[in-house]
C-alpha cells in the first residue's frame, strides 16, 4: 500500500476510536487477513483447505474469540458463514478460486438476500497455476454474482481491507469478496496490529422478503442489488482504498493488487490509479484520471476485467494487446512488455525444472504400482495422487475437479457399457471423498452403475498441508470428535462389496483389485495407510540394499521412489535420510536384495 493511503486508512480507523495501534509484526498475507478478521470482531469463520488460502484458517484458529472450522467443502463453509451473518454476527468464509465455484450457488443467492452481520468471502486466486487446475479469475465470478470486490496489494492492506470489507458489508447490506493471489497470500510484510473491535451482535428480526429467495421476493431484491451496486460505484470515487498518485502524466497506469507493486518498481515516477475496490469500478474517478494522462495502461493479472469496462466507456487505454492474459505478472514482464529496458537472463533462468513427485514412503505410490502392473487406468481427482499421472507410474488418465473421479467413471460406464471399464477404477482421497465424492458415489448406486472406486485413505488432507476433516476425528481447533467411518458410510449407501486393505500389502491389494474390477456392480476398495508426513509418525526402520544379491533387474526402481538411485554398475543405492522404511522396494525385489533394518 502506498504510504499516504496506508496512513490515511489507519488514521480513519483511529479517528473513529475503534482501534488502538498496539504493535508491528511481519506477517504473511494470509496471516494478515486472519488478523483483520480478528480485529474486525468476526465471531464465525468457516473454510475448506485449498492452496493458496489455507493459512487463513490456520491462523484464525489461534484467536479463541473466533469460532473456526474446517467444513467438508466450500459450499458448506459459505452456508455456515451465511447462517452466522443472518443471526447477527460478523462471519467469514475462505477458499481458493476453484472453491468459489463450489460455493457459487449460495453466493449468488445471498447477494440478493444481503446480510445482517457483516459477511466476507476470501477468494484466493492462483495466477501461474502453482497449485491449481485452472487460472480462473474470481473477479469475474463476483461480477456475475453482483458482489463488490476488494483487492489488497500487501500484508498491511490484507489486514486493513479485510476490516474495511466488513464495514462495507454492513453499510451496503451486501456480502463482500476480498480477492487475493498466491503472491500476496504467501508474501510477508510489516503489519500494524490493532485491538479487536467488540462488535455488538445485531438483532435478528424475521424478514422473509429479504432472506427467503423464492421468485416473488427475489424480484424485489434484484432491484435493490442493482441500486446497491450503483451507489457503491459512486461512493468508490471517494473511498480510501481507491487512490490516485499523480507524477509524470505522460504515462498512467490503472492497476490493483500485487501488479501495483510491479508498476511502482518499474515506473516509480508514473501516475497511478490504484484500485482497492475492483468491482464495481469508480467510473468518475477513472474518467478523471484518464483525462489527465497522455497514455493510459491497464495492468491487471488474468482476465481483462477492468480493461473491458474502461474501454466500454470510450476511454482509450492499452491492456491485453500488450500484457499477457496468462500466468503471473512480474516487474521484468512489465519492463519487457513496454520495452523500457533490456531484460537480461538471470543465472537461475535456465535451471532444470524439478518435477513434482510423491514423497518417499507415500502409500499412493504403492497403490499406483499395483494398478500399473495390472495395466488399469484410473479416473483421477484433486490431491497428491494426481502425481500418478506422470512417469514412471502413468496411471491417472483424468483429473477435473474435487469429487469428479467417481462421476467420470460412472459416465464412462453409461457411455460404453460394463465391459469397457473392467480395466478402469476411480481413485479419490479421504478428504476429497468427504468433500464431494460422497455425492458421486451415491449417484453411482442410485443409477445402478458399475465400477470400482479406490479411496486412498491417508488420514489427512495431504495436498494442502495436512488438515483434518470429518473422517480424521479432529476439528480445526484440535478437538477430538467422532470420526466418520468411511467403510460404514459406503455400506450405508447399499454397496455390498467394501474392502479395506493396507496400501503396502501388495499381494493382497493386487488380489482385491482383480476381484473388484471384475464385478458387475459398484464396489469400493479403501486403502488404509497414513501420510508419511503426518505429525507424530515415527519410522523406526529403513531399507538397505544388499549389492551381492542384486540382479540389476530394476524392479525396485519402477515406482520412482526418490530415495532410490541406480548406480553406474546397475545396482542401487538407498538414501537412508530420505527412506521411511515403507518396504515397497523390498516387496518388489524377488531376490531378497533389499533388507529392512532399524535406523
Please describe what this structure looks like.
By secondary structure, this protein is α/β, with parallel strands linked by helices. The protein has a seven-stranded mixed β-sheet. The protein has a six-stranded parallel β-sheet with strand order 15-14-16-17-19-18, with helices on both faces. Helix 5 links the parallel strand 4 (91-96) and strand 5. Helix 2 packs across helix 3 and helix 2 (29-39) runs parallel beside helix 7 (155-172). The model is unreliable at 1-17 (pLDDT under 50).
The radius of gyration is: 27 Å
Percent of residues in β-strands:
15-25%
Q: What is the approximate shape?
A: globular
Largest sheet: 7 strands, mixed
Assembly classification? single chain
What is the percent of helical residues?
Answer: 25-40%
Class by SSE composition = alpha/beta
Number of helices: 20
**Spatial ordering of strands, largest sheet:** 3-2-4-5-7-6-12
What's the end-to-end separation, in Å?
Answer: 51 Å
Q: How confident is the prediction overall: mean pLDDT? A: 91
How many DSSP E strands?
23
Low-confidence stretches: 1-17
Briefly, what is this?
With 599 residues, the protein is an alpha/beta fold. Helices cover 36% and strands 20% of the residues.
Supply database-style keywords.
599 residues, alpha/beta, six-stranded parallel β-sheet, globular
List the helices and strands and how they pair.
Blueprint lengths: L2 H13 L5 E8 H11 L4 E4 L6 H7 L6 E4 L3 H14 L3 E6 H17 L5 E7 L12 H8 L3 E2 L4 H18 L3 E6 H4 L2 E7 L13 H4 L3 H21 L7 E3 L2 E9 H10 L3 E6 L1 E3 L3 H9 L4 E4 L5 H8 L18 H7 L25 H11 L3 E3 L16 E3 L5 H13 L7 E6 H17 L4 E7 L28 H7 L4 E6 L3 H12 L4 E7 L12 E5 L18 E3 L5 E3 L9 H5 L5 E5 L1
Parallel strand pairs: 2-3, 2-4, 4-5, 5-7, 6-7, 10-11, 10-13, 14-15, 14-16, 16-17, 17-19, 18-19
Antiparallel strand pairs: 1-8, 6-12, 9-11, 20-23, 21-22
Amino acid at each position: 500500500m502506498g504510504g499516504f493511503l496506508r496512513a490515511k486508512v489507519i488514521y480513519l480507523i483511529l479517528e473513529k476510536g475503534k482501534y488502538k495501534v498496539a504493535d508491528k509484526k511481519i506477517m504473511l498475507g494470509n496471516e494478515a487477513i486472519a488478523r483483520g478478521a480478528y480485529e474486525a470482531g468476526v465471531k464465525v469463520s468457516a473454510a475448506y483447505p485449498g492452496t493458496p488460502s489455507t493459512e487463513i484458517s490456520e491462523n484464525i484458529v489461534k484467536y479463541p474469540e473466533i469460532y473456526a472450522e474446517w467444513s467438508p467443502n466450500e459450499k458448506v463453509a459459505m452456508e455456515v458463514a451465511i447462517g452466522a451473518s443472518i443471526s447477527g454476527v460478523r462471519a467469514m468464509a475462505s477458499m481458493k478460486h476453484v472453491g468459489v465455484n463450489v460455493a457459487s450457488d449460495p453466493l449468488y443467492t445471498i447477494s440478493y438476500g444481503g446480510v445482517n452481520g457483516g459477511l466476507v468471502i476470501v477468494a484466493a486466486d492462483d495466477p501461474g497455476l502453482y497449485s491449481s487446475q485452472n487460472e480462473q479469475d474470481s473477479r469475474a465470478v463476483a461480477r456475475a454474482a453482483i458482489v463488490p470486490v476488494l483487492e489488497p496489494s500487501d500484508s498491511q492492506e490484507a489486514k486493513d481491507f479485510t476490516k474495511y470489507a466488513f464495514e462495507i458489508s454492513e453499510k451496503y447490506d451486501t456480502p463482500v469478496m476480498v480477492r487475493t493471489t498466491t503472491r500476496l497470500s504467501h508474501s510477508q510484510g510489516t503489519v500494524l496490529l490493532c485491538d479487536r473491535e467488540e462488535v455488538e451482535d445485531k438483532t435478528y428480526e424475521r424478514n422473509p422478503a429479504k432472506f427467503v429467495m423464492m421468485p416473488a421476493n427475489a424480484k424485489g431484491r434484484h432491484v435493490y442489488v442493482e441500486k446497491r451496486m450503483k451507489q457503491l460505484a459512486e461512493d468508490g470515487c471517494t473511498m480510501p482504498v481507491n487512490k490516485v498518485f499523480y507524477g509524470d502524466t505522460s504515462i498512467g497506469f490503472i492497476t490493483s493488487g500485487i501488479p501495483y507493486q510491479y508498476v511502482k518498481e518499474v515506473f516509480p515516477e508514473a501516475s497511478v490509479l490504484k484500485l482497492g475496490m475492483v468491482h464495481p469500478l469508480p467510473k468518475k474517478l477513472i474518467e478523471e484520471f484518464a483525462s489527465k494522462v497522455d497514455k493510459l495502461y491497464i495492468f491487471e493479472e488474468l482476465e481483462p476485467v477492468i480493461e473491458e469496462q474502461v474501454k466500454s466507456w470510450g476511454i482509450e487505454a492499452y491492456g491485453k494487446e500488450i500484457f499477457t492474459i496468462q500466468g503471473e505478472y512480474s516487474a521484468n514482464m512489465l519492463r519487457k512488455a513496454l520495452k523500457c529496458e533490456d531484460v537480461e537472463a538471470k543465472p537461475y533462468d535456465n535451471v532444470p525444472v524439478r518435477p513434482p513427485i510423491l514423497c518417499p514412503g507415500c502409500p499412493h505410490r504403492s497403490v499406483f504400482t499395483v494398478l500399473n502392473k495390472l495395466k488399469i487406468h484410473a479416473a483421477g481427482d484433486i490431491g497428491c495422487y494426481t502425481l500418478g499421472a506422470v512417469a514412471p507410474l502413468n496411471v491417472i488418465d483424468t483429473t477435473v475437479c474435487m469429487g469428479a473421479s467417481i462421476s467420470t467413471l460412472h459416465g464412462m460406464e453409461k457411455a460404453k457399457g460394463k465391459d469397457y471399464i473392467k480395466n478402469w477404477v476411480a481413485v479419490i482421497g479421504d478428504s476429497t471423498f468427504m468433500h464431494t465424492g460422497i455425492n458421486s458415489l451415491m449417484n453411482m448406486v442410485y443409477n445402478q452403475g458399475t465400477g470400482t472406486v479406490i479411496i486412498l485413505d491417508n488420514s489427512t488432507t495431504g495436498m494442502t498441508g495436512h488438515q483434518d476433516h470429518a473422517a480424521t476425528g479432529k476439528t480445526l481447533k484440535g478437538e477430538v470428535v467422532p470420526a466418520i467411518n468411511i467403510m460404514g458410510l459406503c455400506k450405508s449407501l447399499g454397496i455390498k462389496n467394501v474392502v479395506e486393505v493396507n496400501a503396502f500389502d501388495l499381494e493382497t491389494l493386487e488380489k482385491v483389485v482383480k476381484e473388484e474390477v471384475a464385478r458387475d456392480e459398484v464396489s469400493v476398495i479403501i486403502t488404509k495407510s497414513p501420510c508419511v508426513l503426518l505429525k507424530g509418525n515415527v519410522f523406526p526402520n529403513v531399507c538397505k540394499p544388499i549389492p551381492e544379491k542384486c540382479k540389476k533387474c530394476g524392479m525396485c526402481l519402477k515406482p520412482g521412489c526418490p530415495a532410490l538411485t541406480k548406480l553406474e554398475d546397475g545396482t542401487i543405492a538407498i538414501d537412508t535420510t530420505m527412506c521411511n522404511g515403507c518396504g515397497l522396494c523390498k516387496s518388489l525385489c524377488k531376490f531378497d536384495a533389499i533388507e529392512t533394518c532399524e535406523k
